[in-house]
Amino acid sequence: MVIVCAQVHRWVNYESMLKECLVGRMATKVPAALKAMIPPPPPTSLLPPVSVAPPPPDKDSRPRYDWFQTDVTVHLVVYAKRKLPSSGCTQVDLEAGVLRLEVLLGKMSYMIHLRLADEVEGNVSVHTSFSVGKIQVTIRKQTKGKWESLGQPLEFHNTFLRKKDRAPFYRECVLVSKTEVNHNTYVFRLQLPRGTVRHVPVGQHVYLKANIQDTEVVRAYTPVGQNLSVSSNNSSQDSDLYLMIKVYPDGVLTPHLNSLHIGDHLCVSGPEGTFSLRPLRDVTHLYLLAAGTGFTPMARLIQAALQDFESIRQTKLLFFNRREEDILWRCQLDELAANSERFQVEYVLSDPSESWTEKRGRVDESMLKDVLDRPDGSKCYACVCGPTAFTELTIGLLKQQGFSEEELHAFQG
Ligand SMILES: Cc1cc2nc3c(=O)[nH]c(=O)nc-3n(C[C@H](O)[C@H](O)[C@H](O)COP(=O)(O)OP(=O)(O)OC[C@H]3O[C@@H](n4cnc5c(N)ncnc54)[C@H](O)[C@@H]3O)c2cc1C
Q1: Ligand 1 atom closest to Cα of residue 221
Q2: Which domains are seen in the chain, by residue range?
C-alpha cells in the first residue's frame, strides 16, 4: 500500500471513519459498500481517500437519492443517472430547517424537499461529479448525534417532473451594489441567502418579483458575469448574481428597482429558459446579434465561447443600439477584441452622431451578408436577442442566408 500523503485528514482514515460514520436508516447499503472496498489491513491506519461506490445500474432513468451521516454532518447524495452539464444544474436552498434541492436535467426537474430531522447550521456545500452524475450536499448538524431519519417529506419531495410544470421558486436576495453602466443602465449585484447554492446556466434568465402598489410584478433578467474578463474565473468563485438592467422611466418594475437602496431585499427565481451550450460543440464560427439590453445573454456566452470551446475559431458580436452612449460595456468589448484574435465586435447605430464612422442603420440583408462569413468546412451558429421585432426580423434574414433551425437560437421570454 502506497501512502500518498504524510498527513491525512481523519475522515480518510478508515478506523476513525468507520467509528464516526453513523449510518442513517436510508443508508444501510453504505457499510456493505465500504466493506467491499476495504483492502487488507494496511501497515498504518493511513489510507488514500475513499470514494463511495456508484449505485448499481438501474433500468429506471429516474434520479434517486441516498444519505449518510457522521455525528457532525449529514450528506445527501443524488444520483442523476446521466452526465451533468458543467454549466450548473443544481439549486439548493436551506432555510429554517427546510431543505429544497432541485436538479435540472434538460427539460426535467428532480426535487428533494424535506423538513430536516434536527437543527442544522445555515451553510450548505455542494459537490458535483459531472461525468459520474452525482451531486453531494453536505450540511452540518447543530448538535452532535445520530439522526434516525433525514426528515419529513414536504410537497413534491422525490418527484421527477417536467421543468415547466414546477412553479418558479423565489429567494430573498440582498442588493449589495449598483454600478452605473451608462445613462440608463446599471449592474445590480445581488447576494443569495446563506443557505442557497445555485448557478444560473449561461443564456438562461431569472425572474425578479416585487409588490408594487399592491400588485405583484414579475419581469425576466439574464445574469451577466461581474465583467467580461475571460481569464478571471469569477463565475465559479463568486455566487453573487449580476443583473444588467435598463431603467425605463415609464416602466413598472425598473423604476422600482432603481429606487432600491443597498441592503434592500428582492425576490429572485431560479433559472429559466431553453438555451443550451450543447449545440456549440464543433461550431467554428459563432455569430451573436444583439440589440440594446439583448446584449445580456451574449455577455456570458462570449466568455464561454472563448474559455470553454476551443473549436470556436471566431466569435463575432454585431451590437445594435440607437446612439453611441447606449452601447453597453463598450470599453470591455473593445479590450476583449484587442486581446483576443478569436473575438470581434461591430457596432451598428440607428441614430448616430455625424462623427460616427462605423456601421449605421438597421439590420438588413446586405448588412448580414457583409458580416457573416461562412468559409468552406466551417460550422456556424447564430444567437439573436433584442426587442421582439428585431429578433423576428433578424431570424428571418439569417434563414434567408442559409441558416437552418438547428444553427439558430432566439433568446425570448
Ligand atoms: C427572457 C428575457 C430576458 C430579459 N433580460 C433582460 C436583462 O437582462 N436586462 C434588461 O434590462 N431587461 C431584460 N428583459 C426585459 C425586462 O424583462 C423588462 O421587460 C424590462 O426591464 C421593462 O420592465 P418594466 O416593468 O420597467 O417596464 P414595462 O412596464 O414592462 O414597460 C413599460 C414601457 O417600457 C418600455 N419597454 C419595456 N421593455 C422594453 C423593451 N424590451 N424594448 C423597448 N422598450 C421597452 C416601453 O416603452 C414600455 O411601454 C428581459 C426580458 C425577457 C423576456
Answers
A1: 5
A2: 1-49 (no CATH), 62-167 (2.60.40.790), 170-269 (2.40.30.10), 278-410 (3.40.50.80)
